[in-house]
Specification:
CATH topology of one domain: Thrombin, subunit H
Shape: globular
Largest sheet: 7 strands, antiparallel
CATH class of one domain: Mainly Beta
Structural class: mainly beta
Helix content: under 10%
Distance between the termini: 50 Å
Radius of gyration: 22 Å
Strand order of the largest sheet: 11-10-7-8-9-13-12
Number of helices: 4
Strand content: 35-45%
Number of strands: 22
Amino acid sequence: MIKQCLISALALGGLQTALADTIQLKDKASLDGKVLSEKRDQVAIDIGYTVLVVPRSQILKISKTTGAEAATRFTAPPPITPPETENVPVTASRPGFYAAPHQPLPLRSVRDLVKQVGEAVVQVRTPGGLGSGFIINEDGFLMTNFHVIEGETQISVEVYLQKNGELDRKVYKQVRIIAINKFEDLALLKIEDKDTSKFKYVVMGSADSLSVGERVFAVGSPLGLERTVTEGILSTKTRQLGGELYLQTTAQINPGNSGGPLFNMGGEVIGVTNMKITFGEGLGFAIPVESVKFFLDHRDSFAYSNDNPSTPYHYLEPPSRARHDNAIIE
């Protein structure tokens, strides 16, 4: 039904050129109108005579125009093309809080990619345990799982820097919680130690553009074994667990991997590893990067406050009992 609506709307799309926003679809057609709302799985656009709800899976890009300037946000990159050279910088990106490729990065070997992304993958330690994380911009902002830092305020981050062909471990202890989403198991942290240099960071890819069976690899600190690399394939993109959809992979995931990145073969983050089936092998799971982008794009809504650690979720206990004189009424 959505497909038919889009086809009929495209036939009249040329009449709406005076409107500001443009949605370019994967079939090379476009919709001109006013984008009313953007959700993780769909976009609503007013094209003048009706409002259409377009699935994200059919959108190539969204262009918004304010005056003479247009800001474009990619939601589904075109298919990955074979590399012409191996010397392609992994940080090819667009301006913004986090980096995303202007175009899909060329496929490379795990050996080559680990050398480039290794410094951006970190170990996150708390008094209660440890996990993994990855730096998303040069200012020291990094992603991890909420359950890695849940109930903790003393957080340290270990970064492994390459100097003269050797790894130099550096520990940062001034780490602040910026935003949390308990329900998506995501947390945004920031390294605030003084006299820090610019950090190496990863780029965000697209899990939507992947196909089941494609090769992926994870980097993290399983059981405290830092910089461990595991490789596998994408088993499924829509594994439902606890009401959420996860990426399932055969790449080995163990305690300590939580919060670390799952990469495609272009070196782009396509998920955040967060759990495994304990009584099975090759059954690891990751939060799709689209959820991470949504969290980062709306991080102010998930802001964490040291004065109110319950921010942004603060619920009162439900009244399960009512007291009347000396009696308890259930």
